[in-house]
Amino acid sequence: MPNILKYILLFSFSFQLQAQETLTLESAIKIALENNYEIKIATNNLKIDETNNNLANAGLLPSINATLTNNNSQLNTSQTQADGSVRTLNNAKNFNLNYGIGLDWTIFDGLRMFVKKEQLEVLEQQGKTELQASILSKISDVYLTYYDLVQQQQVMASIDSAIVISNQRLTTARNRFTIGKASKLEVLNAQVDLNTDKSLLLKQKEIYKTTKIKLNELLARELQTDFKVIQDILIEENLNYEELKEMALQQNPQLQTQILSKKLVDLNLKNVKGNRYPTVRLTSGYNFSRSEASLGFITQSSGQGFVYGVSASIPVFNGFLQNKNEKVAKYEVENATFLLDQQKVTLESQIASLFASYETNLELVKVEEQNTEIAKQNLDITLAKFRIGTITTIEFRTAQQNFIEASVRYSNAQYQTKLSEINLKELAGTLSLN
């Protein structure tokens, strides 16, 4: 009898799951990376940023346009000459045609075009960081939901084993009642306790099923896809606080996004200051023109050839808006600095709190593991005594409930420790994707 509980977990619950697909954590992550909608959206946003990061959007390249103008008129025309004579012509036709190709190039604008190119590069970097943050967030959700299922599976196995024992207790009570060694009350109590265990298992199965639906939703696949997960929660017990904090300051996605936001407002200040400098534009092109008139000194003319020129403008006075705009840009830089410092403090606080929980939960896992083993030994002894009738049903039920509760607490302690580990790695940007 001492080994019965050792094998109940291995066979009774596993037998119910053997026909289901085993979904490994690596497979779940792979499916999420391929299917998750938020990751797809973040990926497309990055592609947009990459596409926008070019010389043309920064204003570094010239614009070339082809033009065509064709004007026609048919008028009743009257002209008075210098000698006083008058010339008239009805339905006088006039024709004017211009076409050509022209170049317009801003060759200097106070270096704002170079600032714009830097801004586009920072936006692309920000897109990469936001994609990384989205991936880490979704992968963290997959981790947490997956291990939640592992924990629930362990809890169901514990309840399932309790039901096996409750069935044995009911059988024993009936046998004892048949031979007159127990009352009907003992049989009824055993039946009530068995039904209580079955009810508890049904409720736990409902939670398990809804959590599986949640994981399928994260994986963006058919919500009713059936599967099972692994049996054990593997905990990394050697996380180092200083290493986690250093890694977080270097590669935490939210902090990196804030750093890039600070760069953008710094560049915006440069862009505003660039308005103080002149703007120089170069124009060039090749044009062809032709005109015809039915009445006048010149009835036909045409021309073709290159045209070119340079224009320059410099701001002299705009109602002191330049100074005001620069002042506003400086305040934005100051605010971005405050936000960056705040993000660093918040990040360090989160890591410190999570690491404290991680250390506490590691100790709880050890305590609850010992507790579960003790509760198991106590139940083995109690079950043996119950079989020979040297212990009351209340004492037996207490030992059984103690074992279930100890098993649940042990599973929960493992899950809470894993939760702290996953959250710490997410903050540090080191959460493995496979």
From TrEMBL:
It is found in: Cell outer membrane. The keyword Signal applies. Keywords: Cell outer membrane, Membrane, Signal, Transmembrane, Transmembrane beta strand, Transport. Pfam families: OEP. Residues 1-19 form the signal peptide. Belongs to the outer membrane factor (OMF) (TC 1.B.17) family. This is TolC family protein.
